[in-house]
């Protein structure tokens, strides 16, 4: 605890750096996954290919991906952008499947009915399908938020600053409290993001307040 | 792209594969770590998971604990263990087991739970004991999901095994960190590609075994 208090400014900086890597990746993965899932659901033969294809990304270990991506992106291994893209890809690996399932779970009868009352495909998507798939999409978003926040720290072994730097510093200099603080803060950050998402979900989707599985 | 060519030529060079610290030996080490970690965590998690699924007791506890472990940063677990037990294989092995248990546990109880209750009732009505229902009905029918849990655990361990070299153990991470420290990007890249290849091959083997199993069971 004393160690943590003595190093509070650095810990704050690292927490912010952690969020700068994690938040854009989670947001980008979500924003990309929904249209990809929608398109995949529309073109049925493509669905399995797209969903399994992005799922395969999940089999790729994180540290090697951080190192391989720069050849495709033309960035350095330690670039923030490189880490964000890698984390986005991992987010996509989980999110495309859950978004495809979420959008698929909207009752076909409701879809036909909304077309019958005059919704254009675009309007139908935003005012009928998206709200109905909302709770399931939120569940997927919560999963990628937790996993991304915990994945960020691996990039510390390459020298990228994040809460993971508390692990590498702590290990190299033999400071147990540094590592413990890193683990606790990562968990707290993940929990806070989760609460934030749940609260946002309640506010945006008051109709889904009933029991959830 | 030049770096990629160099990395591929490192991987195609027989000399890079031979010797006690070559790619061949490191890949075997990587596989050995993965296998051992899976064996230990399956021995711990499978019985518990099957029991939770069979009895339905402590289910909430199993769900929450596996969720919590999933939020743990792997690098944190591995470095913390290393500070306590020192450099070597023990620390990474502790981390691998901690990280592999939730997936195996979840696969085991989900597998048993996925069996149709009517089928279980029918088995009991035939005079099967609780153990017989578990061993002859629930485990065989839940096998695809149980193997799915082992598959997720394997992916997790293969990825984490790369970090073992960071705390002084072997595996393909050795080459990766050697490249990192000597600023040899092609070597880092070659090691990364080798790990990715290994992970994809293992995943594909699991996919294949799950498919064969489903086909044998007639649940295509």
From TrEMBL, chain A:
<keyword id="KW-0812">Transmembrane</keyword>
<feature type="transmembrane region" description="Helical">
    <location>
        <begin position="79"/>
        <end position="96"/>
    </location>
</feature>
<dbReference type="InterPro" id="IPR035906">
    <property type="entry name" value="MetI-like_sf"/>
</dbReference>
<feature type="transmembrane region" description="Helical">
    <location>
        <begin position="50"/>
        <end position="73"/>
    </location>
</feature>
<comment type="similarity">
    <text>Belongs to the binding-protein-dependent transport system permease family.</text>
</comment>
<protein>
    <submittedName>
        <fullName>ABC transporter permease subunit</fullName>
    </submittedName>
</protein>
<dbReference type="InterPro" id="IPR051204">
    <property type="entry name" value="ABC_transp_perm/SBD"/>
</dbReference>
<dbReference type="Pfam" id="PF00528">
    <property type="entry name" value="BPD_transp_1"/>
</dbReference>
<feature type="transmembrane region" description="Helical">
    <location>
        <begin position="16"/>
        <end position="38"/>
    </location>
</feature>
<keyword id="KW-0813">Transport</keyword>
<dbReference type="InterPro" id="IPR000515">
    <property type="entry name" value="MetI-like"/>
</dbReference>
<dbReference type="GO" id="GO:0031460">
    <property type="term" value="P:glycine betaine transport"/>
</dbReference>
<feature type="transmembrane region" description="Helical">
    <location>
        <begin position="179"/>
        <end position="204"/>
    </location>
</feature>
<keyword id="KW-1133">Transmembrane helix</keyword>
<dbReference type="GO" id="GO:0055085">
    <property type="term" value="P:transmembrane transport"/>
</dbReference>
<feature type="domain" description="ABC transmembrane type-1">
    <location>
        <begin position="15"/>
        <end position="197"/>
    </location>
</feature>
<dbReference type="GO" id="GO:0005886">
    <property type="term" value="C:plasma membrane"/>
</dbReference>
<feature type="transmembrane region" description="Helical">
    <location>
        <begin position="132"/>
        <end position="159"/>
    </location>
</feature>
<keyword id="KW-0472">Membrane</keyword>
TrEMBL record, chain B:
<comment type="similarity">
    <text>Belongs to the binding-protein-dependent transport system permease family.</text>
</comment>
<dbReference type="GO" id="GO:0005886">
    <property type="term" value="C:plasma membrane"/>
</dbReference>
<feature type="domain" description="ABC transmembrane type-1">
    <location>
        <begin position="27"/>
        <end position="206"/>
    </location>
</feature>
<feature type="transmembrane region" description="Helical">
    <location>
        <begin position="153"/>
        <end position="173"/>
    </location>
</feature>
<dbReference type="GO" id="GO:0055085">
    <property type="term" value="P:transmembrane transport"/>
</dbReference>
<dbReference type="InterPro" id="IPR051204">
    <property type="entry name" value="ABC_transp_perm/SBD"/>
</dbReference>
<feature type="transmembrane region" description="Helical">
    <location>
        <begin position="185"/>
        <end position="206"/>
    </location>
</feature>
<feature type="transmembrane region" description="Helical">
    <location>
        <begin position="60"/>
        <end position="87"/>
    </location>
</feature>
<feature type="transmembrane region" description="Helical">
    <location>
        <begin position="31"/>
        <end position="53"/>
    </location>
</feature>
<keyword id="KW-1133">Transmembrane helix</keyword>
<keyword id="KW-0813">Transport</keyword>
<dbReference type="Pfam" id="PF00528">
    <property type="entry name" value="BPD_transp_1"/>
</dbReference>
<dbReference type="InterPro" id="IPR035906">
    <property type="entry name" value="MetI-like_sf"/>
</dbReference>
<dbReference type="InterPro" id="IPR000515">
    <property type="entry name" value="MetI-like"/>
</dbReference>
<dbReference type="GO" id="GO:0031460">
    <property type="term" value="P:glycine betaine transport"/>
</dbReference>
<keyword id="KW-0472">Membrane</keyword>
<feature type="transmembrane region" description="Helical">
    <location>
        <begin position="93"/>
        <end position="112"/>
    </location>
</feature>
<protein>
    <submittedName>
        <fullName>ABC transporter permease</fullName>
    </submittedName>
</protein>
<keyword id="KW-0812">Transmembrane</keyword>
């Amino acid at each position: 605890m004393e160690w943590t208090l003595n190093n509070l400014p650095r810990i704050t900086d690292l927490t912010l750096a952690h969020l700068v890597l994690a938040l854009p990746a989670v947001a980008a993965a979500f924003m990309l996954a929904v249209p990809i899932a929608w398109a995949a659901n529309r073109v049925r033969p493509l669905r399995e290919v797209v969903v399994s294809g992005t799922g395969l990304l999940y089999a790729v270990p994180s540290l090697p991906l951080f190192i391989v991506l720069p050849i495709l992106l033309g960035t350095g291994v330690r670039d923030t952008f490189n880490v964000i893209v890698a984390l986005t890809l991992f987010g996509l690996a989980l999110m495309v499947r859950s978004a495809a399932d979420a959008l698929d779970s909207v009752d076909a009868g409701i879809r036909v009915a909304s077309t019958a009352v005059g919704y254009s495909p675009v309007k139908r998507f935003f005012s009928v399908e998206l709200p109905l798939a909302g709770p399931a999409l939120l569940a997927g978003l919560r999963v990628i938020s937790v996993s991304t926040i915990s994945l960020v720290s691996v990039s510390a072994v390459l020298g990228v600053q994040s809460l993971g730097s508390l692990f590498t510093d702590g290990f190299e200099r033999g400071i147990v409290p540094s590592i413990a603080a890193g683990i606790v803060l990562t968990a707290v950050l993940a929990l806070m993001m989760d609460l934030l998402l749940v609260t946002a979900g309640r506010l945006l989707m008051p109709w889904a307040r009933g029991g959830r599985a | 792209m030049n770096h990629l060519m160099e990395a591929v030529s490192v991987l195609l060079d027989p000399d890079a594969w031979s010797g006690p610290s070559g790619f061949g030996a490191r890949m075997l080490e990587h596989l050995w770590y993965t296998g051992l970690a899976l064996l230990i965590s399956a021995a711990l998690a499978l019985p518990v998971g099957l029991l939770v699924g069979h009895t339905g007791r402590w289910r909430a506890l199993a769900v929450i604990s596996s969720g919590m472990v999933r939020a743990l940063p792997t690098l944190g677990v591995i470095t913390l263990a290393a500070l306590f037990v020192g450099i070597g294989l023990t620390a990474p092995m502790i981390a691998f087991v901690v990280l592999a248990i939730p997936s195996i546990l979840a696969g085991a109880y989900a597998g048993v739970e996925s069996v149709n209750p009517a089928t279980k009732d029918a088995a009991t009505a035939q005079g099967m004991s609780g153990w017989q229902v578990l061993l002859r009905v629930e485990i065989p029918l839940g096998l695809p999901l149980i193997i799915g849990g082992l598959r997720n655990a394997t992916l997790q361990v293969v990825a984490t095994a790369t970090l073992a070299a960071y705390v002084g153990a072997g595996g393909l991470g050795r080459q990766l960190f050697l490249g990192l420290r000597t600023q040899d990007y092609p070597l880092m890249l070659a090691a990364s590609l080798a790990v990715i290849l290994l992970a994809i091959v293992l995943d594909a083997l699991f996919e294949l075994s799950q498919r064969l199993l489903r086909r044998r069971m007639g649940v295509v």
